[in-house]
Specification:
Layout lengths: L1 H15 L24 E7 L2 E6 L5 E4 L5 E5 L1 H11 L9 E6 L10 H9 L3 E5 L8 H13 L6 E7 L1 H12 L8 E8 L7 H6 L3 H12 L3 H5 L8 E7 L20 H4 L6 E6 L9 H13 L8
Parallel strand pairs: 5-6, 5-7, 7-8, 8-9, 9-10
Antiparallel strand pairs: 1-2, 2-3, 3-4
Length: 308
């Protein structure tokens, strides 16, 4: 235990000098694979599959290539310079980028199957990591705004979200930061979003492990908070997971549900269409029907035949 504590202190001390972005500072680097960033890393830049991430504990940054190999590390300014020199430039595209925003406790890997199919169908896709359990929704929205503000080579953006990711994008659009002057928001697909708040989260709010794992973000998914968030002013498709039965998967919830979010909670006034897909919450983005509906809606606004 003492050895671990000392190692942690040394790591934090060695990284403390990397937190300033005023002067570019890099450190010796080996192009080694990483796990790609989960709950302790936040993407701050994206360029053709390359990402600059910030560690939420130490504040230092790293540059990852499209295969999650670390190409540089140091402060943000240094990693930006390395990205500009090493990362591929924007190739021919229609000017539209599709951003995939994962849910609480997940990572960008959750969208692997969806991303592959979107790319096969010709979409340019960026899958973003954010520390969903370590920061509030407002911080997640600001993080995505920073990525969009520094994006080059694109004129339009669409979003595909899962669960909490849908709430992050709603907050992002409500904040109306300066990126919105350079990028047109085209369409949004929300998979299992707790648009009306989460009854399940409310039932677990007094459960200590839930509070420890999901912090303020999990406790903010109340009907009262969700009601204050503006509705997106662009076409958006909502896809809900369902058991196909009146009682749902989760006995703690009333009505049909995907075990985490009730079907009724996914609805949002102004939705272009609402599609119900048989699926558990965790796997909704991997369902063929959900993937096909997402591709069609993003391409030309096609509404799935079974949507309401």
């Amino acid at each position: 235990m003492l050895r671990t504590a000392l190692f942690t202190l040394v790591l934090l001390a060695s990284c403390s000098g990397l937190m300033t972005d005023s002067a570019p500072t890099t450190r010796p680097n080996l192009a080694i694979p990483t796990l790609g960033g989960k709950q302790l890393w936040a993407d701050r830049r994206w360029q053709e599959g390359w990402r600059i991430q910030e560690n939420v504990l130490t504040g230092h940054h790293r540059l990852l290539d499209e295969n999650d190999r670390r190409r540089a590390w140091g402060n943000l300014a240094a990693c930006v310079l390395e990205m500009e020199s090493q990362a591929p430039k924007v190739t021919d595209n229609d000017g539209t980028l599709v951003l995939l925003i994962h849910g609480m406790g997940r990572s960008r890997a959750a969208f692997s199957k969806m991303q592959e199919e979107l790319q096969v169908q010709g979409f340019t896709v960026a899958s973003i990591s954010y520390p969903s359990t370590r920061r509030p929704v407002s911080a997640h929205a600001h993080q995505i705004a920073e990525i969009l503000h520094n994006l080059n080579g694109y004129s339009k953006v669409s979003f595909v979200t899962h669960s909490l990711g849908g709430i992050v994008v709603r907050q992002l659009l409500a904040d109306r930061e300066d990126w919105i002057e350079k990028l047109q928001v085209d369409r949004i697909v929300m998979l299992a979003p707790p648009n009306q708040g989460s009854a399940f989260a409310l039932k677990l709010e007094s459960f200590a492990p839930f509070r420890w794992l999901f912090g303020d973000t999990g406790l903010s998914l109340t009907p009262e908070v969700m009601a204050t968030m503006p509705v997106p002013e662009v076409p958006f498709l909502v896809i809900a997971g369902s058991s196909g039965k009146a009682s749902g998967y989760n006995s703690m919830l009333d009505g049909d549900d995907d075990f985490v979010v009730r079907v009724a909670e996914t609805h949002l006034a102004g939705e272009t269409a609402h599609l119900i897909v048989p699926s558990l919450h965790t796997f909704l983005m991997n369902q063929d029907l959900a993937i096909a509906a997402t591709c069609d809606f993003l391409r030309d606004g096609t509404i799935p035949a079974h949507a309401r």
